[in-house]
From TrEMBL:
Gene3D superfamilies: alpha/beta hydrolase
SUPFAM superfamilies the record matches: alpha/beta-Hydrolases
Domain AB hydrolase-1, chain residue ranges per copy: 39-299
Species this chain originates from: Coemansia spiralis
Coiled-coil positions: none
Protein name: AB hydrolase-1 domain-containing protein
């Protein structure tokens, strides 16, 4: 899998979106019968674009399919990952980050791609809801959606305890060794696939100063920014839930059996008005299924793409990512 880095404009003049554009390292398959896809990936709160890489590596390995991934564009939301590094002066004192803003940024990125057909949105948690909001704002922007354990509330919720816990989260380490010693045995991160933990340490932290002990590191997404996103769910999440009936494109929900945010019966109820929707529950998985088992997650995504393929259009090959 090859990667090209790209900076996009947001829906605001003073902020940017950092993205990784992935494409297969195998020779291009020439076929006028395969449905050629662009995946657009939106991450969960507190995380970043590189955590999609294990799942994408597996998705790109599929060849005997009716679909072909031309490129996969993984975004860092404006206050996360490399985007946070770019936008630091404007996000240092955030109080709230409305989810509608993330949705508008996704639409702004798509407007800069120049190829509206067969864009399949793939989102996790906050990113999943942001994709739904984008589709609600601009119907049929996406050819299809894959919604992974979304945070879809039925009413506005103000979780003060969650905000307080987030603001107290440890966010700096004296060096990479100390960071690894923290993340690897931690009960929260310890259930993740080893590749995901390594990617989080490598790409989720930034050097901020040097000390005799080494290079001091901090989370690119500071606790204040993560908390701002939680605060920004208040109106946006129930708005998405109430307007799911407006999502007309084929949509697949993937949730964790152990997730307390997406119980099976609840998801079944809120998605019943959607005209073209399927729901799969991943056994033994939690809300963070993308991190716990990226290979099984990718296999589920591949099954979804199989089901989408007959409904998608055959199009000419996309512009190579390096030329975007």
């Amino acid at each position: 899998m090859n990667v090209v880095k790209k900076i996009f404009d947001t829906s605001r003049s003073d902020q940017k979106i950092a993205a990784n554009i992935y494409y297969s390292s195998s020779p291009a398959i020439s076929s006028d019968k395969k449905k050629r896809l662009t995946l657009l990936l939106a991450h969960a709160n507190g995380f970043h674009k590189e955590l999609w890489e294990p799942a994408l590596t597996r998705l790109f390995s599929y060849d005997a399919k009716d679909w072909l991934i031309d490129q996969a564009i993984a975004l860092d939301s404006y206050n996360h990952g490399d985007s946070a590094v770019l936008n630091r002066p404007s996000i240092e004192a955030e109080e709230t980050s409305p989810w509608f803003m993330n949705a508008r940024d996704i639409l702004a990125v798509i407007a800069q791609l120049g190829q509206p057909e067969n864009i399949v949105g793939v989102g996790h948690s906050w990113g999943a809801v942001s994709l739904l909001l984008s589709e609600i704002m601009s119907p049929l922007t996406f050819a299809a959606l894959i919604i992974t354990d979304p945070v879809l509330y039925s009413k506005p919720i103000w979780n003060k305890k969650l905000l307080e816990i987030t603001m107290k989260r440890r966010c700096e380490w004296p060096d990479v060794g100390a960071a690894k010693a923290y993340f690897d045995p931690h009960p929260f991160f310890g259930t993740w696939d080893k590749r995901i933990r390594e990617l989080h340490i490598k790409y989720g932290l930034e050097p901020v100063s040097k000390s005799p002990a080494g290079q001091k590191l901090m989370l690119k997404c500071r606790p204040v920014n993560e908390a701002a996103v939680y605060a920004g769910s208040y109106h946006a999440s129930p708005h998405a839930t109430d307007n799911l009936w407006k999502v007309q494109c084929p949509t697949a929900f993937l949730t964790g059996e152990k997730s307390d945010l997406s119980p099976e019966d609840y998801i079944k109820g809120i998605t019943s008005p959607m005209p073209d929707c399927q729901h799969v529950v991943m056994k033994s998985a939690s809300h963070l299924l993308v991190f716990e088992d990226p290979d099984q997650t990718a296999d589920c995504y591949a099954d979804f793409l199989d089901s989408f393929a007959p409904k998608l259009m055959i199009k000419n090959p996309a512009v190579p990512p390096a030329n975007l």
